[in-house]
Amino acid sequence: MSTPATVHRRLKPSPFLPDLAEIVRKDRLTAAETLYQLRLVDGTELGHVPGQFVEVGVFGVGEAPFSISSSPSRGEVFELCIRRVGDVTGALERLGLGARVTVRGPFGRGFPLDAMRGRNVLVIAGGLGIVPLRSLIINLLDERADFGDFTILYGCKNPTDMLFKDEITRWAARSDVDIRITADIADPSWKGNVGPVTTLFRRLTIDPRNTVPVMVGPPVMFRHVVKQVLACGIPEDRIVLSLERRMKCGVGECGHCQINGVYVCQDGPVFTYAELKRLEEAMLR
Amino acid sequence: MNGPISVLKRPRLAVFELASCAGCQLQILNCEDELIDLLRLVEFAYFKEAMSETSDDYDVALIEGAVTRPADEEKLRVIRERASLVVTLGSCAFPVGIPGLKNTHDLAEVEKLVYGDHAELFPSTQAKPVDAVIPVDAHILGCPIHKDEFVRIVTALLIGKRPPVPTYPVCVECRLKENVCAYDRGLVCLGPVTRAGCGAICPSYGSRCFGCRGLADDPNLPSAEALLEEKGRSPEDIRAEYVLYNGYYTLAEGGLKAKVAK
Amino acid sequence: MIDRVVTKADLLDFLDRLAAERKVVAPVAEGPLVRFKDIGRAAEISDRYLPTALPPSKYLLPPKELLLRFRTDDGVAIEPLFDTGEIVAFGVRPCDLHALALLDAIFIDDKHDGHYLSRREHITLIGVECLEPCDEHCFCASMETLDVPSGYDLLLTDLGDAYYVQIGSSLGKTLVESLGAARDAVYEDRTRLRKAHDSRHAAFTRRLDVTYDQLPALLAESSDSLLWDVLGEKCLSCGACTNVCPTCYCFDVRDEVDLDLEGGRRYRAWDSCQLEEFAMVGTGESFRQPRSMRVKHRFNRKGRYILERYGRQGCVGCGRCARNCLVGINPIEVFNQLKGQPVERTVRT
Ligand SMILES: Cc1cc2nc3c(=O)[nH]c(=O)nc-3n(C[C@H](O)[C@H](O)[C@H](O)COP(=O)(O)OP(=O)(O)OC[C@H]3O[C@@H](n4cnc5c(N)ncnc54)[C@H](O)[C@@H]3O)c2cc1C
Ligand code: SF4
Ligand code: SF4
Ligand code: SF4
Ligand code: SF4
Ligand code: SF4
Ligand code: FES
C-alpha cells in the first residue's frame, strides 16, 4: 500500500530501541549508593556531554533515568552513581558483573562547556547533585588550562553520605582547584564546616563579571543558592542549573517531565536561571 | 548470578484462610493455563483447598479472609514470623470486604445472633483487615481476585519488583473500555474513588463499582460525596456505600484512608 | 486532483465491498454512545455526529502498545515491534482529523517515532464533514478546526442524496478510483458544496469569548486565577478527560515478564497528568501535587503549550472532556470564565 501524502519519512527505528550494555564494575560508595561502570556491548563509546543522562533498563523491571557521572574524556566505559530507591535501582543492585542492561541515550542538553571556557567556574553540589557534576569536574580538570578559577562547593546531609571521598581528596590536593565541603549535621569525626551549602559562601570572593555558577541539588538548595549568586551580581542568564523530574521516554513524548511548556528531558535537564525563572512549575521561588 | 533477570529461587508458598468464602483460593486453582508454568517458579508448601500435606516451612504467605477472632491475630503473628513476604488475597483480607459489615452492628448482638446462647464460647472481634494486625508486603485486591492480576503480582514479586497495583481510580480503566458511565444509566458508582486494577469489570458488565478494591491513593472524597448527594443520596446512603467493602476503614479512627502496601 | 461525487447508495455499496476484504473501522452507535469499531457491513455505521467515546487516535497510539519484545534465555535478544496491519477508518470528523494532524506533527515530523509512523502508514483516513454542531459541548468553530485543509485521504461532504468527495492523497486517489461509480465533480456540485459550507456558519456559533490564538496569552495571564482552586476542589482526578481527548498522548513506559521469567515486553500505556503519580519523582515528591495545579496544567497544555510548541491547536473543540466529566469541568466555561475574570461563581450550576 502506498503512503498517505502527509507521511514522507521512511520508517525509522524506535526511539525505545535500546543498546545493550554490560556491567563491568560495581563499587559500593555508601549504604544506598553504588557506582556502576558500564560498557556498550557493541564496543562504541556513549559519546555524551557532561550533564546528559541515559535511560537504563533492567529486563522485566523497567527503565529509569540516570545522570552520566564520568567524563567523556575517559574512553569507552561510562559511570553511573545510583541510589537504591525502588524497582530499577533495586534490581540493578542485585545484578552481578557481566550482567546485561539496556541503555538509551545520551539524552538532553548538557552543561554549556563552551560558554564556560575562559571563565571562572563555581560548582555547587547538594547531595546526589555531585553525580552529574562529577562528569563536569573531571572534564574541567582534564582541560584545566581552558578555564579560570575553579571552585567546588559540596554539601551533604551527613558526613557519611559524602560521595567520591577518595577522588575529592585527590582533587583537594591540587593547587588549581578550591574545594569546600559542608555537612548539614556533623558527627564526632567531622572537622569541616557545618550547615547548609549556602554557609560556604561566607568566606568566598566571587568575581561577578567573570564567574559561571553551576548548581545541581534538591529544590530547596536551588532556592537559596540562586538568591546568593544573584546577590553577588551574577546575571540570570549565566546561572546554570540542572533539574530532576519524573521521566519515562527521555525524548519529549511522554509528558512526564514537563515544567509548564518545557520538557526537562529535551530542553534540559541543564537550564539557565533566566530560562526558568518565569516558570512557576520550576519551583525556584 | 549474572543473568539479566534476577529471580527469587523457587520460593515456597503457603495459602492461609481466615473469615472468607474461599473464592479467592479457587481463583488460584482456576489459573489452568498458567498453573504449570507457575509451579516451575514456586512450590506450594501449604494450600488446604488443593493439597493434603501441611508444612511450616514457607517463604511467602498468601492470606485470604478477614480477622474476626483473637485466634486469627495469633495465627497471623506466627505467619509473619515465618514468612519473608506476606501477601493478602482478596477484599476480605484488605480492605475488609463483606465480613466488615458486621462492624456496623453491636458486637455482642452479632455474637448472639450467630452463636445464640453459646456466644461466649466463640470469642469474636470486630472484623479487621490483615493490615490492621501485621505488616503486609503486597495486596492482591478484588472480590474475588482475578487470576491475571494474581499471576502479574506473583511474577513481579519473583523478580523483586513492587506489586504493579494502580494508584489511580477505576474510572481510568472504565473510560478506556468505552463504557456507558453508570451515572449516565441512572446509577451511582464508586469508581471515581476506588483503586483500579480490575479493568472496571463491574461497570463493563452493566453494573457499577461498589468499591471492593478499597480507595485509590488520592481520592477526592468531598467532591465524590457532593456528586452522590447531587444524585439524591443521603449521608446515610453514602456511608452505606463505603461500608459495603470498606467497613473497617470507614469506621476506624482516622477515617477512610487509602492504604496499600508498596 | 479533480473532486468527485458519489451517490449515497454507491458509497454504501463500496464500503460493504471494502469491509469484506479489509479491516474497516467506523463510528457505531450503541445506546447513548458512538464508538469507533470494526464493521462488517456499511449499515452498521452511525451518521450521528456525536464524537466517539474514544477518539480514533486509539488506532495510532493504542492505550497499551507493545514497543519491544526481549528474550534472555539464549544471550539477549531485543526485537522492536512495529504494527503493519492495514486499517481503513471511515467517518473521521473534522475535529479528530485536526487532532491526528497534530499527532503526526509530533510523532512523525518531530520525534520520528517508528511505532506511530508504522501505524500511520497503514491507516487510510476517510473524513466526513460536519454540517451542524454535535451537541452543546462542541466548540470546534471557535477552535477553527471545522474546516479541514489536509490530513485526510478522502473527505466527504453530505450533499443530501450524494457525497462530495475531496481527495487528499495519492492513496485517496487510488481508493476513489476503485470506487467505480463516482463521477467527476462539475460546477453545480462545487456550488452545492459551497452552499453546504456557508450554511454551517449560522449553525456553528462561536462558543468562546476569545479566538484560539488568544488562548496562550489568556492562560499565561491567568496563572494565579482563583478558578484553578475552585476546579481543583471539584476535580476527581479520574483521568476521564485526558483518556477521551483526541490530542492527549502522554504515556507511561513499563515492562512485563513472560511466565518463564526468561523474556518479556516493554510497552507504553496511556497516562494522565491528572493523576497524582504522574509527576512524582524518586524521592516520593510530586511536582504537581495540588489538584488545582494538575487541572491548570491540562488547560495550559490544551490552550497554550502545544500551540506554542507545535503551532497547532492543542484542543480541537470536540467537547469529549466536558461530556465525560462527572463534576462538570468544561473547557468552554473555563476559558470564558478566565476571560471574564475575576471569578466568583463555580463552574457547576
Ligand atoms: C535527569 C535525571 C537524572 C537522574 N540521575 C540520577 C542519578 O545519577 N543517580 C540516581 O540515583 N538517581 C538519579 N535520578 C533519579 C532516578 O531516576 C529515580 O530515583 C528513579 O525513579 C529510580 O527508579 P526506580 O525504578 O528504582 O524507582 P521506582 O520504583 O520508580 O520508585 C521511585 C520512588 O518512588 C517511591 N515509591 C515506591 N513505591 C511507590 C509507589 N507505589 N508509588 C509512588 N511512589 C513509590 C519510592 O520510595 C522510590 O523512592 C535521576 C533522575 C532524572 C530525571
Ligand atoms: S461507571 Fe463508574 S467507574 Fe465507570 S466512568 Fe462511570 S463513575 Fe467511573
Ligand atoms: S469495579 Fe469496583 S466493585 Fe467491581 S471489581 Fe472493580 S473495584 Fe470491585
Ligand atoms: S474528567 Fe473531570 S473530574 Fe475527572 S480528572 Fe478530568 S476534570 Fe477532573
Ligand atoms: S480538551 Fe476537551 S474539547 Fe479539547 S480536544 Fe480535548 S477532549 Fe476535546
Ligand atoms: S466537535 Fe465539531 S467537528 Fe467535531 S464532531 Fe462535533 S461538530 Fe463535528
Ligand atoms: S521524559 Fe518523556 S517527555 Fe520528557
Give a brief outline of the structure.
Chain A is 19% helix and 29% strand. With 285 residues, chain A is an alpha/beta fold. In chain C, a hairpin with a 3-residue loop joins strand 8 and strand 9.
Features:
B: 262 residues; alpha/beta; Rossmann fold; 2 domains; five-stranded parallel sheet; globular; C: alpha+beta; four-stranded antiparallel sheet; 12 helices; binds flavin-adenine dinucleotide; binds iron/sulfur cluster; binds FE2/S2 (inorganic) cluster
Structural write-up:
The complex is a heterotrimer of chains A (285), B (262) and C (349). By secondary structure, chain A is an alpha/beta fold. Chain A has two domains: 19-107, Elongation Factor Tu (Ef-tu), domain 3 (Beta Barrel), CATH 2.40.30; 113-282, Nucleotide-binding domain of ferredoxin-NADP reductase (FNR) module (Rossmann fold, 3-Layer(aba) Sandwich), CATH 3.40.50. Chain A has seven helices and 15 strands. In chain A, the strands form three sheets. A seven-stranded mixed beta sheet of chain A has the order 10-9-8-7-11-12-15, sandwiched between helices. Chain A is globular, with a radius of gyration of 20 Å. Chain A starts with 18 loop residues before the first strand and ends in a 9-residue tail after the last helix. The two termini of chain B are 26 Å apart. Chain B has a five-stranded parallel beta sheet with strand order 2-1-3-4-5. Chain C is α+β, with helices and mostly antiparallel strands and 349 residues long. Chain C has two domains: 4-203, no CATH class; 212-340, no CATH class. Chain C has helices spanning 8-21, 94-110, 114-121, 140-143, 170-178, 187-203, 215-221, 227-234, 240-243, 291-310, 320-324, 331-339, and strands at residues 4-7, 24-30, 33-38, 64-71, 77-80, 87-92, 123-128, 154-158, 162-167, 183-184, 251-257, 263-270. In chain C, helix 8 (227-234) packs across helix 10 (291-310). The longest helix of chain C is centred in the C-terminal third of the chain and has 20 residues, at 291-310. The radius of gyration of chain C is 22 Å and the shape is globular. Residues 343-349 of chain C have low confidence and may be disordered. At the A-C interface, strand 4 and strand 13 of A face strand 4, helix 2, helix 3, strand 7 and helix 5 of C. Flavin-adenine dinucleotide sits between chains A (53, 64-67, 81-83, 85-90, 128, 131, 244-245, 247, 269) and C (277, 280, 282-284).
